[in-house]
Amino acid sequence: MTERPPYAGTRYPRLADIPAFTERIAEGWGEEAVPAAVVPGAAEAAAAHRRRLGERVPGKAIVVASGTAPVRNDDCEYLFRADSDFAWLTGCAAEGAVLVMTPRPGGHDARLHLPAPFRPGETGFFANAAHGELWVGASPGLKSWSEALQIQVEPVTALDGATGLTGALASRSVPEALLASLGLERSEALGRHLSTLRMVKDAWEIEQMRLAVDTTVDGFAAVAREVPRAVAEGLGERWLQGTFDRHARTFGNGPGYATIVGSGHHAPVLHWVRCDGPVLPEAALLLDMGVETRSLYTADVTRTLPADGTFGPRQRDVHDLVERAHRAGLAQIRPGTAYLDFHFAAMEVVAQGLHDWGLLPVSVDEALSPKGQQHRRYLACGIGHHLGLDVHDCSQSEYEDYMGADLEAGVVMTVEPGLYFHANDLTVPPELRGIGVRLEDDVLVTADGAEVLSAALPIDADGVEAWTRARLAEAGR
């Protein structure tokens, strides 16, 4: 049998089985110290979060994992992003990590288990594409993570055959293999507890939300300045999507969700993330975008811009109605009010406006009734949600804790009414077809009211036009 030559990669036959290679690749490497990437203040905030969770489930062991990157195709993965509950409890964004909290009198002890990087001299250094430093670069060691996060850190292999965790609450992020080895089942109750705790942000979290929103506002300006080029060179919606995503990746961790850029008849499509159309100079341009900070907190802001700097008459009519609904919703945001009050206030304005335009087949009262909702044909989605580590934050909580609760100081939420008249909607006059307008702001509930974190972007049509023209002018300099 003819001996096969070494494969170009590390397999078939394995380079690890060739002594000359393993001897050569193990020698001559200097040390490269890499600090753990932890956002300032994250370790202290995470410790406080663990205390809050421990107080909610006293006497219970807790297991939460960071997760692993999903496969994109074949042996290539998507870029890793840590599970939000794990990030909230640790301040760590490492892949394949596991937090274990064990009860003790008066609280919980916490240990973080991390995959140890493969250093020179170890087979994994060149053979493991996920953690081998030849593949991924120098990585922080367990000691660096422990010092940065102020928590005990052990290798993830120390969990093999671990005992004493019977009955522990395991999060939905814990992989099946680990659940099986520890004899655990996933706990929906743990997810609900974490979602409810995450609804009210502490001072550090609010600081991260401000950073996310401010960086997002800068991203809107960067996108608006590229509109003339997207039009003139035929680069289209995807150029603007890429502009924002580059901005988010440069000044944060990346976009907090798939960036939406919809021009003309794409604007009414609620989640238009394909972004494969042209940017039409005479059409409204809907931009729904958010920067995720390096601490993984995200903004979620939407504005609808006139691509040429001026709204057409019917575009302005739609924008004005959405603005009135938006202001009605914002006016309800304060401590002690029912969470859904903002939703109902905005919907009442929308329904009345549609009725005035002759687009409702019933009265406003009938449309607003639980058995009506005819106005929702043009606004099928909700008009707000909690915001934080997830763009739709705290979604695992009970209805009573989310929709049925009163607002508290420290809640961060969105208000985002819109009207969406699809190009093929025969229930509206031709001049409305293909117009989609959404206004979305990120709002912090304060002790005595609310603060619109994204207020740097105007919401009135005149203000939006003036802001857009200024950015278009900057593009021509």
Summarize the structure in words.
By secondary structure, the protein is an alpha+beta fold. It has 2 domains: 31-197, Creatine Amidinohydrolase, Chain A, domain 1, CATH 3.40.350.10; 200-473, Creatine Amidinohydrolase. Helices cover 35% and strands 15% of the residues. The strands form 6 sheets. The chain has a 5-stranded mixed β-sheet with strand order 6-5-4-1-7. Strands 9-10-12 form a 3-stranded antiparallel β-sheet. Strands 13-16-17 form a 3-stranded antiparallel β-sheet. α2 crosses α3. The longest helix has 30 residues, at 203-232. The radius of gyration is 26 Å and the shape is globular.
Write a concise keyword list for the protein shown above.
globular, EC 3.4.11.9, 2 domains, single chain, Creatine Amidinohydrolase, Creatine Amidinohydrolase, Chain A, domain 1, aminopeptidase, 477 residues, Xaa-Pro aminopeptidase, manganese ion binding, 17 strands
Give start-end ranges of low-pLDDT stretches: none
Integer-rounded radius of gyration: 26 Å
Distance between the termini: 70 Å
**CATH class descriptor name of the largest domain:** Alpha Beta
Number of strands: 17
Bulk shape? globular
The major beta sheet can be summarized as:
5 strands, mixed
Q: And the CATH topology of the largest domain?
A: Creatine Amidinohydrolase
* Backbone structural class: alpha+beta
Helix content: 25-40%
Number of helices: 15
- The percent range for strand residues is 5-15%
Largest sheet, spatial ordering of strands: 6-5-4-1-7
Number of domains: 2
What's the mean pLDDT score? Answer: 95
CATH superfamily of the largest domain: Creatinase/methionine aminopeptidase superfamily
CATH architectural designation of the largest domain: Alpha-Beta Complex
GO molecular function: manganese ion binding; metalloaminopeptidase activity
Pfam families: AMP_N (PF05195), Peptidase_M24 (PF00557)
Keywords: Aminopeptidase, Hydrolase, Manganese, Metal-binding, Protease
InterPro entries: Aminopep_P_N (IPR007865), Creatin/AminoP/Spt16_N (IPR029149), Creatinase/aminopeptidase-like (IPR036005), Pept_M24 (IPR000994), X-Pro_dipept-like (IPR052433)
